[in-house]
Write a structure and sequence with these properties.
The chain contains three helices and twelve strands; from the N terminus they run H-E-E-E-E-H-H-E-E-E-E-E-E-E-E. By secondary structure, it is an alpha+beta fold. It has two domains: 84 residues, no CATH class; 63 residues, no CATH class. It has a four-stranded antiparallel beta sheet with strand order 9-10-11-12, with no helix packed on it. Strands 1-4 form a two-stranded antiparallel sheet. A hairpin with a 4-residue loop joins strand 9 and strand 10. It starts with 12 loop residues before the first helix and ends with a strand.
Amino acid sequence: MTFDPFANNNQSAAEQAPAHAVNTAMPAAVASAPNPFKIGFTLKAADQMSGEWLTPAVYGQTAQETAERGRDLIHAMQEVGLIDLTAKAASYVRSQHIASEKPKGKPSFQGGKVQHQPQEGEFTCEHGKRNFKDGGSWAAQFCGAPQGVPKSEQCPPLWRQKDGSFKAK
């Protein structure tokens, strides 16, 4: 069964409360000047980029104050169950996600973007499957007519454009 962190589980408040009381009410700090110190945390659930991340940050007037606030924040996140809840919520969201189909073809970098060049067999003409030729700075899909068919009877080649698509000139 998949945990749904957004479902109304009809649990009483006593069942949902942490084992011991955690003081999460902090007095609002009114800064007379911007806090010069900041600590940002990145808590990753996996080595890869696919795991969920928590990225809290704390600010303070001194390095000591900022470090203490960071420690208190991490402890509070754990005690309140925010870290576990985030992992469960992320797992639920991933289970609901339907991935789009991956682009076919060989990826290349052109014009500042990753382009997926079509695989050889994706283009056809009235003579059959087109033949893909890549000359480095150029690429084209040539007519699939059998050898011996005069050039005048062959379909015009489709030349690779800057956006990775193929068009006849």
